Amino acid sequence: MEGVLINPSLSRLKFSVPNLLHPSSSRPIFISHRSFPHHHPFRLRLRTPSAFFQDQIPQKGKENDALEEEVKEEDAYGEVNRIIGRRTVRSPVFANDGSVTTAISTEYLVEWKDGHTPSWVPADGIAADVVAEYETPWWTAAKKADAEALSSLLADESISRDPDAEDPDGRTALHFAAGLGSEECIKILAEAGADVNKLERAGGGLTPLHVASGYGRPGAVKALLEAGADPDIADGRGRTPLELVKEVLVATPKGNPAAFGRRMALEGAAAELEKVVFEWGEVEKVVDGRGEGKYREYLVEWRDGGEREWVKAEWLAEDLVRDYEEGLEYGVAEAVVGRREVEGGKREYLVKWVDLQEKTWEPEENVDTELVQEFERQQGTNGEKVSGEGAATQETAVG
Fold this sequence. Notes:
four-stranded antiparallel sheet, disordered N terminus, three-stranded antiparallel sheet, 4 domains
């Protein structure tokens, strides 16, 4: 059992501990005098009075005196070397109303020169300059996205580095790397075990993926997704990374040369997210719709025969949504059997339907691309060219 009391002085490592008093005396059991090693060696007086915790009842007479003598004999001194580790401590706090919150604090692992086992010490018990010697290299590297420095710090086996170390706002080095778009730093931190889904405590409660998305860092978005980042986690306002980047896009003016690069970057980030958020499939037809505004959804039928699904309006091609809203009916095309040129240099194709006997001429944009390509392939094989008047001939040849 170790205990110390603060001995305030400049550049000294200080400790905050319970006021452990001898059962029958107001004299502190433990007293420490320490100063930062770069100025002069500092020492910690350690005592381990095991009998103290065996009996908390005040002793009298010779037994009490004997205990005091034992404490004096167990005095030991050791010089502090450096901070060699850091950890975040989360403790439940119970309120009078029965609610429970979490208190978050930081502790540092202190290495002693005299061989004592390294000890964990609360951050508020350590002088700022001592903490800075350990913390500054890490946060400097993180906030500059210095991959070489981060890699070197993590590789130093003599000092433990927590890749999930948090700043006062609960942000980690990965949040900064994501915001700066450093794919290399993201990879280094992820390989070191950093939590790619860490939510910051301040700000908007963002994950690194939210940060990379909101800043328009498509490369960082891709790197985070490859490292296992979850694109469905919501931030403090209930937004997924994709919803966040689209919100930022809406707020970024179009047609403004100064904002052009910004929009391109945001669109790139959105595209990377869409690759993993959406399972792309070809819609056969829109069957039904529900909801209004941003909550509008459509029930779609997939071309590959999968089960019908409700899909958000923003995920569907604009022409599909427009056709449904305008009341256009869908049919299942079997083949293209003819082609003709129409006014304006455009083309129309004669479509044979699965559920209709009558073939109809349809604008090129309304006809399935694969059916058109198959028709054109056969057209080339047969060596035939079809005009508006000759469409029936081609229909006979292909149909």
